[in-house]
Amino acid sequence: MSAGARMRAQEILDAYEASGHLRRRSLCEELHEVCLRHSERRAVVAPDAELSYRQLELTIAHWARAFLEAGLSGGDQVLVQLPNSAAYLVSLFALMRIGAVPTLMLPSHRHSELVRLARQLRPVAYIGGRDQLGFDCVAMVEEADPQELGIRLLYADAGPEHAGPAPCHRLPPLPGTADPEPPPLPVAGPGHRDAALNLLSGGTTSEPKIIPRVHEAYACNARAAALRCGIGPDSVYLAVLSSSHDFPLAQPGVLGTLLCGGTAVMCASAAFDEAFAAIEANRVTVTAIVPAVAQLWNEALEWYPAQLSSLRQILIGAARLDAKLGRSLMARTGALIQQGYGLGEGITTFTRLDDPELVALGTQGTPISDGDVLRIVDPQGRQLPAGVVGEIIEKGPYTFLGYHGAHADDDCFTADGFLRTGDRGYLDADGNLVVCGRVVEQINRLGENVSPHEIEHLLGLIGGVREAAVFGAPDEELGERTVAVVVTDGPLGRRRVMKDFEEQGIARYKVPDEVIVVDAIPRTNIGKVDKEALRAMTQQRTERTD
């Protein structure tokens, strides 16, 4: 960030502090106060531990001290790639406590994403899981040569320890039924304007976009989302989506729940049997899923015996929900649905708990803060009236202040400070947002953002591939599936593409779901790939198959 950009960022924070939207306190301070106020209540329930707020506070303090003694310090960049667990949350908060900056890698990230992140961040440490749905993330880092990546310290949630230039340590133990001993010394916390963590965006290029979130702004985001969704001390939130994503982490997610004194239940996956069992066992009141998961849960409820009477609301984001599916899911669970829209970079909207069904199932609601300003504009930046589709732009107290790393100079703001979201939509007569798609093409596959440009590039590296075009097609299970149309010198199938991507260390979710070999890719009269013609061709092919 340039000196001018830093000055503008400070001016923005000054203004929102003066208006009372930002509290001049770090996430660490806010969580510490909650832990003291609700010391005996359940804070975290996870496969690896169950923690009261007192135990959570003491464990964070112990781990923070251990990280300091291992050589980590304020400002250090740390990659974190852990499953939904107590260890994940304690690691996150302990790193924040010492002023280190955790970057939340997705469970699906592999060698390619690791190298690109390391090149941008120069992390000094990595904390990973030995078993992420059968994959050893720590071994991936060890095989990539930690020293070459700049990593001098590894932590694993299980498995053997070893010495060396980049030693691998086990994470400190989690408490059992007894409280841990008080930590020997307090740890100085970060400033309220420091970066709390880095989120990652898929973006439209092969380089991950690194999204720094400021402590006081991210706390504001989580609190405002919690207020809109009615989260309080009696709320029991189930995290089934990976909490490396912004939606289950802070919209209102785990953070919003904990800041309200509620209980965060961590589930390893969104599989209906695991999720339904967790809902029943913990009397879960609220959870967050994407439409593709909603479809699977709804189908399972036709035959799977589940006691979901405690569930009061289901938050749905990442993609628009089909209204018919929404009505069916509400009928089968007895829960209300709140649709939302959000970006790791900023804006969050949700419908309200008392919205009529037409609004709850047909829109993404309104911004969660009275400090948010949401507009729909045409390509020239002119504001559009209600009902007219254009680009969504926004600004507010928790909007990020700019990317870190390779995208630090991206021109993502308008001259008057609005974030260009890259999404298209419109506002209805009551100000509710309806999201219609992307300005810049992107595929939303099971909540993961897939860049067609990146996949086209990766396909072009496969021997024999002369040309490739990638686009998204509607899919009942995935939301959107990734379709690749290629021109090759020989046969090419999905199995070979998968093998090639695995050898390159590319995340599995980026493998096209369908690979179609053609003689030529259709183009418009100005020479651009005609993706509408490709979509029509694919649809005809599907209909013939059916």
Q: What is the CATH T-level topology of the domain at 27-190?
A: Rossmann fold
- What is the top-level CATH class of the domain at 27-190? Alpha Beta
Helix % is 25-40%
Strand content: 15-25%
Q: Write down the oligomeric state.
A: single chain
The largest sheet, given as strand count, sense and whether it forms a barrel, is: 9 strands, mixed
The CATH architecture of the domain at 27-190 comes to: 3-Layer(aba) Sandwich
Give the neighbour order of strands across the main sheet.
2-1-11-10-12-13-14-15-16
Supply the key terms.
GMP Synthetase, Chain A, domain 3; alpha/beta; nine-stranded mixed beta sheet; about 550 residues; globular; Rossmann fold; five-stranded parallel beta sheet; 25 strands; about 25% strand
General description of the model:
The chain contains 17 helices and 25 strands. It has 546 residues and is an alpha/beta fold. Among the domains are: 164 residues, Rossmann fold (3-Layer(aba) Sandwich), CATH 3.40.50; 103 residues, ANL, C-terminal domain (GMP Synthetase, Chain A, domain 3, 2-Layer Sandwich). The protein has a 9-stranded mixed sheet with strand order 2-1-11-10-12-13-14-15-16, sandwiched between helices. Strands 4-3-5-6-7 form a 5-stranded parallel sheet, with helices on both faces. Helix 12 packs across helix 13. The N and C termini lie far apart (53 Å). The model has no long low-confidence stretch (mean pLDDT 89).
Q: What is the fold's blueprint, element by element?
A:
Blueprint: H1 3-18, H2 27-37, E1 42-46, E2 49-52, H3 53-69, E3 77-81, H4 86-97, E4 101-104, H5 111-121, E5 125-128, H6 137-143, H7 146-149, E6 153-156, E7 168-170, E8 195-201, E9 209-214, H8 215-228, E10 236-239, H9 246-250, H10 253-259, E11 263-266, H11 272-282, E12 286-289, H12 291-300, E13 313-316, H13 323-333, E14 336-342, E15 348-350, H14 357-362, E16 366-367, E17 373-377, E18 390-395, E19 419-427, E20 433-438, E21 443-445, E22 448-450, H15 452-460, E23 465-475, E24 479-488, H16 494-504, E25 514-517, H17 531-545
Parallel strand pairs: 1-11, 3-4, 3-5, 5-6, 6-7, 10-11, 10-12, 12-13, 13-14, 24-25
Antiparallel strand pairs: 1-2, 8-9, 14-15, 15-16, 17-18, 18-19, 19-20, 21-22, 23-24
Helix pairs in contact: 2-3, 3-4, 8-10, 12-13
